[in-house]
Write a structure and sequence with these properties.
single chain, alpha/beta, five-stranded parallel beta sheet
Length: 673
């Protein structure tokens, strides 16, 4: 039975095959099957091409109603969006383009739909929306699928908002992907946008490009931007690089003409020096002293080099920033090679001189002045110089390892306290005590007791390591000093008998003579006597010595000039100055004199009468033997000076002589009596 059934099945199959006339046809991939809406779509396309937009709109809508999802759906949506836009129906146009982009993200028409959307938003003044939507789209889409017009409308939106650098970036991106007429349009817009950029913005754009035509454009525009800013050295450098790297560029001849003009402009009249000083107003006394030093230098250097006479052009700044800036401009027009001064308003004058490429040597302690630019120099005694010199002589020559700081709680005192503390640590020392006092007070017992360990009582557990580095000095250890320090004996009738712990060998007191003369005797009163007293150049005052008497015998002072120096150079200067002005010169006269002499020497050594060459000659000065010490300029324009170190001996200031013991055994070095 089973066998019979199998035969029957085979027979049925054979019979079925014999009766079949043709195979069943299956649609091939990509076959153009006609849907009910195809003819409607084709009619709509014909109407659109003929400009019959109302008829086309009805046709496209009918097609979508019948065959939505058909392969022409994205085209129908795109055309409907355009028709709505032509009709001024912006809202519906935006909605249709958004539907196309959202529902058919893989369509080749999406970039065009986005461009239409952004353009419509731009026309409506919605620039922020253009940028936000455009950036989001460009970050998702591949570069190859983005059209130049899409980048252009984003760039136009940035331009409308005043975002010049971003506008230039997107014009550059449009040019990068453009061809034919679009390429020329993008290039023209890129050029216009670059012309509006400042020097910083152009340099940022240079970092983003690698195309030679754009790099040539940017270098040329950067040079011209520097020229407009009156940054003449930068303009010369950039235009020179442009000429060398782009010999075929259309703007090369213009750049060459500019370079020739800049070369002529940077030249100065031989040995012409400008002088900016406060000759009237609150600081006139200091300005006049500086002018005396400069004029004395001019008289000393009646002729230099080939015999050309020195020319000094003096301007009164009146301590007014605007006056100082205008004076720099005037000196530039008078073709000076360099400027000496000012003192006050130094920031404004330095910035103006740097801007115009004029070397300037300022006389100020103000922080950060040399960092203004390559043409700004400073020759003055600064707080940093003073603390460095004080700590160095204390550590290296006197063997001091442990320090204390007693300072007035105000701006000057806090600044010096911080600088001194940092310098001690830098040179391997230790600061064992730091106390502030009221700058308006007269009783300094409390901070002094804190420094001496009296205020808190004697510490109970001092490590041997600490003692070995900073040996304690007690009243018992110093009783033999009492006879030497006349008038400095501890008052035995005081109620507070104590045994002070002095774990420092030097104490720094950054204050003016009047206040220091009150503080120092109170140190002795509280049995802090056999330590070195360290002071700034303010201590270089006979009034301090007269007021403090024998208490100052261990005082060390730093200054930038010492009129009683044993240096023959200083002796000759002081004698000649006294003969000319009937008074003894001070630090201001000395520094102004040295600055002028350094400038004259640099002018003599400069290769050409060019301000740039003069600036370079100043930087090459090394070990200039000035009356205010040996000096030169660091690469940043800061003076590197040897300061005078003074001590007080029998009521007068003397240069610091060190005994052989101090040279050979710094740990036990002492001052020579």
């Amino acid at each position: 039975m089973y066998f019979f059934f199998r035969i029957l099945v085979v027979f049925f199959l054979l019979l079925t095959a014999a009766c079949s006339t043709k195979p069943i046809s299956l649609p091939l991939p990509g076959a153009d099957l006609k849907s009910p809406g195809q003819s409607v779509f084709q009619d709509a396309e014909l109407a659109y091409d003929k400009g019959l937009y109302n008829e086309a709109l009805v046709g496209y809508q009918h097609f979508l109603h019948q065959s939505y999802g058909d392969r022409h759906t994205d085209t129908a949506l795109f055309k409907i969006g355009r028709i709505y836009r032509r009709m001024g129906n912006d809202k519906d146009s935006l909605a249709v383009f958004a539907r196309l982009t959202h529902e058919f993200p893989q369509s080749v028409l999406v970039p065009d739909a986005m461009h239409e959307t952004l353009t419509l938003l731009f026309e409506r003044g919605q620039f922020d929306a253009v940028i936000s939507m455009g950036l989001g789209f460009t970050q998702k889409a591949g570069t190859s699928s983005l059209s130049p017009p899409l980048y252009m409308v984003i760039a136009d939106a940035y331009t409308a908002l005043g975002a010049r650098l971003n506008a230039a970036r997107f014009y550059y991106r449009a040019w990068n992907v453009a061809s034919g007429n679009d390429e020329q349009i993008a290039w023209n817009q890129l050029k216009k946008s670059v012309e509006k950029l400042d020097t910083d913005e152009i340099q940022q754009l240079i970092a983003l490009v690698a195309d030679r035509p754009v790099m040539g454009l940017l270098l040329y525009r950067l040079g011209m931007a520097y020229l407009m800013d009156e940054s003449y050295d930068d303009a010369r450098d950039v235009l020179g690089a442009f000429v060398d790297q782009f010999p075929e560029h259309a703007e090369r001849q213009d750049a060459l003409d500019m370079l020739q003009s800049l070369a002529l402009r940077s030249q100065y009249s031989p040995y012409a020096v400008g002088c900016l000083l406060p000759l009237s107003g609150a600081y006139s006394v200091f300005g006049q002293r500086a002018l005396d030093g400069i004029e004395f230098a001019v008289n000393q250097m009646a002729t230099v080099g080939d015999g050309s006479g020195l020319s000094l052009i003096i301007k009164d700044t009146r301590s007014d920033p605007t006056v100082a800036e205008n004076a720099v401009k005037a000196l530039d027009q008078e073709k000076v090679g360099a400027i000496l001064g000012p003192m006050a308003t130094s920031e404004h004058a330095a910035a103006a001189a740097q801007h115009r490429g004029i070397p300037i040597v300022v006389f100020t302690q103000r922080d950060g002045l040399p960092e203004t630019g390559a043409y700004v120099f400073r020759n003055f005694i600064t707080p940093q110089m003073q603390v460095r010199a004080l700590v160095n002589v204390a550590v290296e020559k006197l063997g001091v390892r442990c320090f204390a700081i007693l300072y007035p709680d105000e701006k000057y005192g806090r600044r010096y306290m911080n600088l001194f503390w940092d310098e001690v640590l830098r040179q391997g020392g230790i600061v064992n005590g730091v106390e502030a006092y009221d700058p308006a007070g007269t009783d300094f017992a409390q901070p002094i007791k804190k420094l001496a360990g009296i205020f808190y009582g004697s510490p109970k557990n001092l490590s041997d390591h600490h003692l070995s580095r900073c040996p304690l000095r007690t009243f018992v250890d110093r009783q033999h000093q009492d006879d030497k320090n006349k008038g400095a004996r501890r008052n035995g009738n005081k109620d507070d008998h104590y045994d002070p712990l002095v774990d420092f060998s030097a104490i720094f007191i950054p204050d003016a003579p009047k206040k220091a003369s009150m503080v120092i005797p109170q140190l002795a009163y509280h049995d802090i006597r056999d330590v070195y007293l360290l002071g700034t150049n303010l201590w270089h005052s006979q009034a301090l010595v007269d007021a403090s008497g024998d208490y100052m015998e261990n005082a060390l002072i730093v200054d930038g000039f010492f009129a009683e120096s044993q240096s023959q150079n200083v002796k000759d200067f002081v004698a000649a100055f006294q003969s000319a002005f009937e008074r003894t010169p001070g630090i201001i006269e000395a520094i102004a004199y040295d600055s002028a002499m350094m400038m004259f020497q640099a002018m003599h050594r400069a290769a050409t009468p060019s301000r740039r060459d003069l600036k370079d000659a100043l930087l090459r000065l090394r070990d200039f033997e000035g009356v205010s010490g040996r000096a030169g300029f660091a690469p940043n324009g800061e003076a590197e000076k040897n300061l005078e170190l003074l001590r007080i001996e029998r009521g007068r200031f003397v240069q610091l002589p060190l005994s052989p013991a101090a040279e050979n055994t710094p740990s036990t070095a002492v001052l020579t009596p």
